[in-house]
């Protein structure tokens, strides 16, 4: 963003210093307008877009007819006017957009390299106007212009997949309007051609694949060949989140991919291939954490047998981590070569260098995989490589599909290596999961809430909704195709769009029914069927078995661990905690990497950090009590050494070096989840210091034990990135801690110290064994729940958020 801001400032200065009658004035105005447009696309500030339109209008007015740059300026103005219409809904902007783009196309000679691009842009504006006015002439012309763009572009051109994808969207829109089979056939051809075009941008190919799959889902019944589409689409997720990009940019790209991995797994499940469903869910979720873990994969075997390749990979991995890390933090922690020092390179140069490193990495991996014994080195794990995660107990993967409005569980069992047990959740749909999520957010007072300030400054979203109209188009096409699919399939239970059903349910006022109803619905619809399938409904067991939940999508925000019947007007009903000890994992790989921990040289070190009074936050006196409880447990067990950083000593400068050498860590402080900039979610330290999620990615903990995050929202995540586990607890797992105790939402200062006291009491009795952390939290929550006064929503909100992740 620094380069973009500087671009705007420099062009503004150039425009101001250039006289009106200077021949370069229109060009400078055009360049300023384009820079403002790009800045709006990134930040969503309407002032930038309005100024972009004004500057481009002035550039066009000052450019004489016949000037070779006039068509380009008209094209840029038409594009900005279309975006302004999408934001404000003024039909004058849309009509002017069409007129300017028509003029740009007319003035562009045949054979000009920009002719296809301008035809494509005109086709997009015409499609948008059809959406508003319903004039079939606009839709027909949209198809014709986009067909011309495709025909004029040679195969191998990097823009051709985009033209094909856009053509497919206009064709499918016309098919939905007129039901002409040729339009559907041609749309499928356009989407499939774009998907298969290896020279195209991965994000475009992925979007085309999603539309292609949606077309096939509208068949009756969908053909099994739909799985071939997903075999192309799922690997594109990792390519879209380009390893050479910054973390925020990778998150942005993943966000655009939507629910493709859920629908891919659902399709595989529908055709009885549950192993493929599990492998796709593993490959297509937590993509960015997976990339980080790959960069840190032990390569001892490779080093021994292929030392040169090992060294090249090690250097490349280190450089890629440096290229993607926050500049200020990385400079203080990891020495880097002057040639790639962020402080001496522009952002554009860093991006270019990151891309170069990613290409180099691809070639290195290809060479390694050609070596004997390394054929699957760093490739996506197959089922036989994932089942070791079940060493200590069953793992339940929960997935939903909006297309089929279904939910189901896929269970991996220790006694069934290489196999998957599917569990039907017949009475629980994707619509219901969404309803429960919004009920929960309403009870927590967080439905629709956004952060308006950060460090006292106004912030706009890192990924603003700057394309309202285009997003609306995508939703309308998707909904129409889904409804068509439902109308063609007798075995689909719900024949209305899941989102519409959810809105209708919410409008009935069901949200007010309370927390107990949410937990009861989860018990009846999700948890009870799973326990029945696993024969885990025996309360009499002296030692409760472990059970790991691996939720996907919207399930990631539902408190599965607390599911049960809690209504006071009847005898105490069954609860999940009566039968098993629950833990969560973001992916199977997160557990695979921890089934064989290395022996620890000497007693482990526990770093305890307490900060009761961060700037701008309420005081947390209970944090001091937590340190007392930890000291007592450590002194009595003598199993760990203890280092404490309290109040003014808990600075970023002190915490980071200690964290690098710690095996256990306890944070008692404020925590915040930043929805606008997820990697800026942070634990608040002394003064204005923050330990952010982005900073954590630069650390590596060896012999990691327990990370106890006694702070708010440390496992909350982001709805738009539900499958990326963008929260602090997942970050702690990724950097090497074996287990994490965290919170799904805000917690009170009265409850947190009690939970910490009980957890460490039970851990002390187990000899401070990290594998007993889930059991310790289970007992602590049982004690907390029993000591709670009342049965209202506030009571449940107080104790339910505490969860265990990992081993």
Automatic annotation (TrEMBL):
Q: Which domain of life is it from?
A: Eukaryota
Signal peptide extent: none
| CHAT domain boundaries | 518-806
The protein depicted here goes by the name CHAT domain-containing protein
User: What organism is the protein native to?
Assistant: Sphaerobolus stellatus (strain SS14)
